[in-house]
Amino acid sequence: MVARVHQAARELLTEVGYEALQLPDVAVRAEVNKTTVYRRWPTKRDLVTDLLLRLSDHDLPHADTGDIRADLVALLKDVAELVRTPLMQAMVRASLEGTIAPEARHAFWAERMHRSSVIIERAIHRGELPEDADARSILEHAASPIYFRLLITGEPVTDHDIRQFVERAVETAQRA
Amino acid sequence: MVARVHQAARELLTEVGYEALQLPDVAVRAEVNKTTVYRRWPTKRDLVTDLLLRLSDHDLPHADTGDIRADLVALLKDVAELVRTPLMQAMVRASLEGTIAPEARHAFWAERMHRSSVIIERAIHRGELPEDADARSILEHAASPIYFRLLITGEPVTDHDIRQFVERAVETAQRA
Q1: If DSSP codes are grouped into helix, strand and coil, which group holds residue B76?
Q2: Hey, what's the torsion of the CAs at B97, B100, B105, B107, to 10 degrees?
Q3: Which long-range contacts (CB under 8 A, 24 or more apart) does B57-64 make?
């Protein structure tokens, strides 16, 4: 039931956006009894917050090429794909509107960074990065221009840009 | 009249947000005839778009300390202040909602980057950066983590963080 409701909510959020999202429509799309939905998620804020938390459970496979640059380029291409989706844009809007509880937002990013940090840990074990390299700092350094362009300035992000973002983040970490 | 309406719109946008912003309220706050407002800005989308374009006309004084790092730190402290304001957050939301015309958003960022690039040009003249240093790339490199944290993840940005963002952006540009 939960999976069907999440899927329906993701689809509707993508199609109509947060403002127009209605729990009864989610129930219909999910083919679940409306009262069942309301019992678990009293408001759409609860459902969208839950959805944001689940977002970190998928969408980001982590390549293991044996090379830190190749792994990060693969990760950031996935990130750019995800950030371009109306779903992720609706999520960011919801965060800015205070629709999503700050704790949920914090948990989402902590989880997302934690999952991706495996790429950095493997690079440290291979000796590509210093022992004390900070995974979150490196991931943020490489990824933040992607979010900045796609969500803030509306500029495009090419694969060449991604390789450049990765290169300077890795070089900075190696020099530290 | 225009300045009074812009000021009123900025105040209301900050107080009630975009969704609740109403042109008649703006007219009252600005002490301007409602029809005068509607004649110049038929919709609130027009007014907010206009407002975004004017945002790039102020708010960012550019320090001239004779040192690229000090100039960028001063700039980014101003940026962090601005990004924390409900006005800027409302603006970003409006962009994500497609409320602000893409051309206006593009023009805003082009203007903003252009104005700040004086800091980079002065550093090139002083020999602190290579002749071919790309101003926009350096400014984006240093500033994007600030937008990422304050608008996307909701994390804080300290003065120490800002000095670190500036240091790695300048080092990367000097190595290029």
Answers
A1: helix
A2: 170
A3: B60/B112, B60/B115, B60/B116, B62/B115, B62/B116, B62/B118, B62/B119, B63/B119, B64/B122
Interface touch A92/B96, C-beta < 8 Å: yes
pLDDT of A148 over the 90 cut: yes
Cα–Cα dist B72/B90, whole Å:
25
Residues A66, A68: Cα–Cα separation, whole Å: 7
Q: How far away is chain B from the Cα of A7, in angstroms, using its nearest Cα?
A: 22
Nearest to B172 among A19, A151, A172 (CB): A172
Contact A21, A97 (CB under 8 A): no
Write out chain A residues lying below 8 Å of B96, CB-based: 89, 92-93, 96, 151
ipTM: 0.85
Q: Which residues of A touch B148 (CB under 8 A)?
A: 140, 143-144, 147-148
User: Tokens at residue A167, please?
Assistant: 């290169």
Q: Alpha-carbon distance A110 to A104, whole Å?
A: 10
Neighbouring CB atoms inside 10 A of A110's CB total: 14
Closest-CA residue of chain A to B152: A92
Mean pLDDT of B147-175: 95
Q: What share of chain A is helix, strand, coil (3-state, %, to 5)?
A: 75, 0, 25
Restricting to B residues 146-175, those with a Cβ less than 8 Å away from any Cβ of A are: 147-149, 151-155, 168, 171-172, 175
In contact, B92 and B143? CB cutoff 8 Å = no
> Number of CB pairs < 8 Å for A and B?
76
What pLDDT shows up at residue A103?
82
Q: Mapping DSSP to helix (H, G, I), strand (E, B) and coil, where does residue B61 land? A: coil
Q: Give the mean pLDDT of A158-168.
A: 98
Give pTM, 2 decimals. Answer: 0.85
